[in-house]
């Protein structure tokens, strides 16, 4: 028992902490409940632009609702970028005059402005705002 505790303590002390690997984003934990699954990704690249992507899958009124959103900031103003899932384009986001952009889509919603096709996503999928920023869903 004492040896096991010592090994466990050593493993915990040796584990890397947040921010210990420069240039690598700390993973965002997967959140899962009985009726919901969520993944998030921090998006970054070589320039000033950054952002985040969120995916949610949940049971709603007997159906599975899928939702995906991307927010970007500090990008080129008034520019349209393709959003890629594992290298395949499936949507686009356009920035405003300040270089910020939002994309939000759901497969089931009462808001027709957010209705669209949301591909099934998984832990480890790559999200890219083409030529600008990217990250991995966790």
Describe what is shown at a glance.
The protein is mostly beta strands and 138 residues long. It has one helix at 2-14, and strands spanning 31-32, 36-44, 50-60, 63-73, 80-85, 88-94, 101-106, 126-129, 133-136.
Q: Which SSEs are present, and which pair or pack?
A:
Elements: H1 2-14, E1 31-32, E2 36-44, E3 50-60, E4 63-73, E5 80-85, E6 88-94, E7 101-106, E8 126-129, E9 133-136
Overall tally of domains: 1
- Biggest beta sheet summary: 5 strands, antiparallel
Number of separate helices:
1
Helix content: under 10%
Question: Number of DSSP strands?
Answer: 9
Q: Which strand order do you get reading across the main beta sheet?
A: 1-2-3-4-7
Q: Tell me the fraction of residues in β-strands, as a range.
A: 35-45%
Question: What is the overall shape?
Answer: globular
- The structure class reads mainly beta
End-to-end distance, in Å?
Answer: 34 Å
The unreliable regions are 1-29
Keywords:
mainly beta; disordered N terminus
């Amino acid at each position: 028992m004492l040896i096991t505790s010592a090994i466990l303590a050593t493993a915990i002390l040796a584990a890397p902490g947040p921010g210990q690997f420069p240039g690598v984003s700390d993973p965002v934990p997967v959140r899962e409940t009985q009726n919901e699954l969520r993944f998030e990704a921090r998006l970054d690249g070589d320039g000033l632009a950054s952002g985040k992507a969120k995916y949610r899958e949940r049971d709603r009124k007997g159906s599975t609702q899928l939702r995906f959103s991307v927010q970007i900031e500090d990008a080129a103003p008034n520019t349209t970028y393709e959003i890629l899932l594992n290298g395949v384009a499936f949507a686009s986001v356009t920035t405003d005059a300040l270089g910020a952009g939002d994309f939000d889509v759901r497969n089931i919603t009462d808001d027709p402005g957010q209705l669209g096709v949301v591909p099934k996503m998984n832990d480890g999928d790559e999200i890219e705002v083409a030529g600008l920023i990217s990250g991995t869903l966790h």
